[in-house]
UniProtKB/TrEMBL annotation:
The keyword RNA-binding applies. It comes from the Eukaryota. One of its GO terms (cellular component) is cytoplasm. Residues 324-397 form the RRM domain. This is Methenyltetrahydrofolate synthase domain-containing protein. PANTHER family: 5-FORMYLTETRAHYDROFOLATE CYCLO-LIGASE-RELATED, METHENYLTETRAHYDROFOLATE SYNTHASE DOMAIN-CONTAINING PROTEIN. InterPro entries: FTHF_cligase, FTHF_cligase-like_sf, MTHFSD_RRM, NagB/RpiA_transferase-like, Nucleotide-bd_a/b_plait_sf, RBD_domain_sf, RRM_dom.
Length: 415
């Protein structure tokens, strides 16, 4: 670990392992702040407000007219300082559901107290106007949250991929340039050595790290995402799927405009040659994390009852002779289905369907071929999630026997 404080345990072998160690350390050391628990979040920490004041000393901040800052709690003071400096503040809409940005517009003559309110999550809702593709925003500085970051500028988020997608969309819109600085605000204990092989080529990197005790300039040379990819494989572009278009309306609009401009916007999963490709096996290097939240959404089964997430391309998998099911046990009671899904994507063993039985501390994963199932067992066996070492093995019986009624939902749409 770089900087003062207790060192985190070494031996992290994956992004998820690093996340778990950071979340656990922040809670155990008393550094975690509301909202708690910090696990599964961009963590808030003691000293976050002071760390944000280091923005004022950055030439990049002083020169910026428009600053984009993520909506998480540890960046609240950064949002306030941006408003207090009379700069334009852009905050991404949650999970990009209703657009890309909200521009925060304080009322005329706003006092510091009102500006602080504008910087809260509720204030973002009450004092904002949407900025769409016609807004022609020019972003001079980007501030993102992190779970962990290295002094080389390599960043690990909470696993949902929205910071990477937001940046790639800004590139496609012309809102950021190759030299637009990216800043993250973290506790000193979140500054770690991160093995380069853990990074995907499209991962967003950072140029400055602000902690309660230090301002770190990373001098990172690793390329940032260079835009949206609609079909051709390229390691530094974010690939879009049909499913993502359904969940992120602004992506659909951006695609339509690029089509009108004469660009080939055929998605990879629309190419006839790829029609029979197992979409669940698409590498996490080419797919952004889907929208995931805890389950208890209106219309879904009560908490504790089983849920099944289906491949939206072929939801009728019941009775298929080609499906191989993997049993995953010893799930911690605090684990959310979104966290398991993030781990599966990161390990590149995404199933075509997931049956979540959190109350029984287990889940069942369906794969279209035995090879994918075997890779899942190998990757998941002994993996630490929430302090528990998972059990993973090929299921001996079909998932539905003895489970009672199962709620079928399209992948990514349950909360």
């Amino acid at each position: 670990m770089a900087g003062p404080g207790r060192a985190l345990p070494s031996g992290a072998s994956s992004k998820w392992d690093i996340r778990e160690k950071v979340w656990e350390h922040l809670e155990a050391s008393g550094l975690a702040e509301f909202p708690r628990p910090v696990r599964g979040r961009i963590p808030n920490f003691k000293g976050a407000s002071h760390a944000a004041t280091r923005l004022l000393g950055l030439q990049a901040f002083q020169a910026a007219c428009t600053v984009k800052i993520n909506p998480d709690a540890p960046q609240r003071n950064a949002r306030f300082l941006t408003l207090e400096a009379r700069k334009t503040l852009l905050v991404p809409t949650p999970r990009l559901r209703t657009g890309l940005f909200n521009r925060i517009v304080p009322p005329p003559g706003a006092t510091k107290e009102i500006l602080r309110r504008c910087a809260t999550s509720q204030g973002v809702k009450d004092y904002s106007v949407p900025v769409g593709l016609d807004g022609k925003a020019q972003v001079d500085l980007v501030v993102v949250g992190s779970v962990a970051v290295s002094e080389k500028g390599w960043r690990i988020g909470k696993g949902e991929g929205y910071a990477d997608m937001e940046y790639a969309m800004m590139v496609s819109m012309g809102a950021v340039q190759e030299d637009t600085p990216v800043v993250t605000i973290v506790h000193d204990c979140q500054v770690l050595d991160i093995a380069e092989e853990l990074l995907d080529d499209h991962d967003l990197t950072v140029d400055y790290i602000l902690t309660p005790t230090r301002t770190i300039q990373t001098n990172c040379k690793r390329p940032k995402p260079q835009g949206i990819m609609w079909h051709k494989a390229s390691p530094i572009l974010i690939q879009v799927s049909s499913e993502m278009l359904g969940k992120i309306p602004i992506l659909k609009t951006l695609r339509s405009r690029e089509k009108q401009a004469g660009k080939d916007v055929t998605l990879q999963d629309e190419h006839p040659a790829l029609a029979n490709t197992n979409r669940a096996a698409i590498s996490n290097k080419n797919v952004m994390a889907e929208n995931t939240q805890p389950w208890a959404a209106p219309g879904s089964a009560p908490v504790g009852q089983p849920h099944v997430e289906s491949d939206p391309v072929n939801p009728k998998l019941e009775g298929s002779d080609t499906i191989t099911t993997v049993y995953v046990g010893n799930l911690p009671g605090s684990l959310r289905v979104s966290e398991l899904k993030s781990a599966l994507r990161e390990l590149q063993v995404t199933p075509v369907r997931l049956s979540w039985q959190g109350a029984q501390h287990r889940a069942f994963l369906d794969y279209r071929d035995p090879g994918s199932a075997d890779r899942a067992v190998s990757s998941l066996q002994g993996l630490s999630l929430g302090g528990n070492a998972l059990r993973a093995e090929l299921a001996k019986n079909q998932r539905n026997k003895g489970q009672g009624e199962i709620n079928i939902v399209v992948l990514g749409e349950a909360h």
